[in-house]
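I hope you will forgive my troubling you with a question about protein structure. The record follows directly beneath this note:
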Amino acid sequence: MSALVSTISKPDAAIPLPHAVWRADQMGSYQAAVTSTGHRALDAELPNGGWPSAVLVELLLQQAGIGEMHLLRPALHSIAKTRRIALVQPPHLPQVAAWTSWGLPADRLLWIRTTRSVDALWSAEQILRNGSCGALLFWQSHVRSESLRRLHLAAQGTEILFWMMRPLACAQDASPAPLRLALRPANGGIDVEIVKRRGPRRDEALHLRLDEMPFFSSSIFGPAPRSLVENRSEQAEFRPGSARAPIVRRASEVENQLVQ
């Protein structure tokens, strides 16, 4: 007993910490690869200097179309060179001509629409688990915390870049996402507030100028015919599978349907 007490009472015994443990006042790191955001100022504020793969990344928007796609454009351009990009429940129909002008081939874009939130969540999980895409962009207004955890867990099994677009008000809710950014429109660009990251707290918003990028008169998203889009908002539990299958189309197929 005396030997046991002597061993435990040593105050100077060093306890090695695993690599995954980080101090709140220091910038953390990710085990998976990262992709540069294309914005040096933002890279400097993110662990490992870029968008992390294999995790859930939340972009909390004041409203859709404030510049979030311009923010992601450099990363999407890099991914589209070799892999597909999946768009689940985007606010509008992808405009193929505009995407192509951005250097994003139409045959690398996969557009998915569902009429129920549960089907959209299921579709996003299947994309993450399948690993056939290099990036997933998922728009969702109402989602339960257990669904977020499930998506985050599914992302950890791949090297996909996974961005989830949610309303700015969701910043007050808890989330398993290790990186959460709040985006607001600003003169010539956007203001990025770091709501959550593996690193020290930053209270001041980061201003990113987006007007330096080439501007195209046609938006990469546009309104879709009523036959293709049904606006419906509901909060549903995440159940794999569903009686109603989602509509899945390549962006090029959708464009052909619109011009007919």
